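U., I forgot to send this yesterday:
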Amino acid sequence: MPKLSNPAFREDVLKRVHQEDGYEALTIKGTANKAIFLAVLLVLSGAFTFLSVSAVSYGLLIGLVIIGTALSIITIFAPKAAFITAPAYTIVEGLLLGIISKIYAGLYNGIVFDAIVMTVAILGISLFCFRAGLIKVTRRFRTVVLTATGGVAAIYVIDLIMRFFNYQVPFLNDTGWIGVLVSIVIVFIASLNFFLDFQNITDAEKYGVPKYMEWYFGFGIILTLVWLYLEVLRLISKIRN
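Result:
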């Protein structure tokens, strides 16, 4: 039986928490509603900055990144606060994505619309494949996806550090075919994280996880969605080049 990636989400622990604390149990429908609500917040806040910001402030960008990172860390380590931190994180990320999208739109005509359509399509296909049972989230699948995701994160950290010394990871930022292929792989890895999110929610309902975790798992969907959208933007920009 596949387990949640967090070791605290063992079946016996989750049942005991549910019974001892007397929480109403999480449902897939409730989690989906929370995720849809957060997605609407993401779109609205993104549209706000995309339409209202005329000049890009990199100070504002950095500030939003710091606030968004802080909110995500709080949400991960304090799931009970997710009903507050998840919407707050989503709004901040939406504002950030709106500004980033504005930058890309100034360089590539129509790229934002293409990226949104592609991101939504990948999410829809992933959900269809999961519901149809075309892809099973086994322990090996989970390990491979988490390892690959960690590898991508490590590369981005290295690239960030190198930029302080006026260098960068060549294959990550290359606009040639190598760079395009690397971006395709990263987009694929990001999309596979949806399967982990869907399986976690399915397992959470099975284990009787407290209802407040609906906000937490909704936050997880948004986290993956934001990452995927940014990677799709990067991929399309490379293809345009």
